[in-house]
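Memo subject: From amino acid sequence to discrete backbone structure tokens
Keywords: amino acid chain, backbone geometry, structure tokens, three-dimensional fold.
Body of memo: The sequence and its backbone structure tokens, given next.
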Amino acid sequence: MNELNVIFNSLRGFSLYSLVDILVVSYIFYKGYSLIKETRAEQLLKGIILIFLLIPISDFFNLNMLLWILEKTITIGVIVIVIIFQPEIRKALEHIGRTSFVEKIIYEDEAVMHGVINEIVNAVEQLAEEKTGALIVIEQKTGLSDIINTGTKIDAEVSSALLQNIFVVNTPLHDGATIIRNDRIIAAGCFLPLTANDKLNKQLGTRHRAGIGVTEITDCLTIIVSEETGVISLAVNGRLLRNYDKEKLRTILVKIMKSRQNKKISFKERVKGWISKKDKIS
């Protein structure tokens, strides 16, 4: 009877604000789980839930030693979590930081956008034919200044000839990433973070893993040309799509750049639209 009174009293105090509160908290938990799903953090969460379930059980059965161990584990657990899962925490915070209500317009002049894309795809086609390895990063909404600082500043107009010259084998800047911001080549020879995804094809080398890695922590686009096969790949949102030709690459880049003008569609929804089911994903 007392339990029923508690329930009725709770329902009596329920209001629209209570509903909003529940929905907001539910959304936060859902987004949090989405970020850690299929990662090491998911296994950690299961372990934490198990510990919290064991504490009242051990207390009920007077398992004092087990209770003491569990309580000490909880005490130092927060510090251990921060140390061990620093990459996942950083990724989650960067994901939150990229979320905004106002989209940054990358190209206001569509003619400039098409000109930049043409120069890029012409260079990539030539590099692929010659089997010259290349790694080109196109900055989007998230700034890449920390990555730019690891390379050599250039700040030159995007041109096919310059891009090809940068990646000539045995030149100082060929073994690194070239960063493009709007219609400028900002830097070359830059170092990118490698992906931690252990499910990728083992035949993919450091260039591909770096290209994927930077798209996992930012919203940039990365074009990769394989040095061994000349295959053109595109990395976006942590996914690698392979076997592009000049026209196919041009088409998807135009779609991506144009979509920046639409402020109502999230980046993840756009990615789903860009990626065709026929694309080969590695």
Observations:
- The chain has a mean pLDDT of 82.
- The radius of gyration is 25 Å.
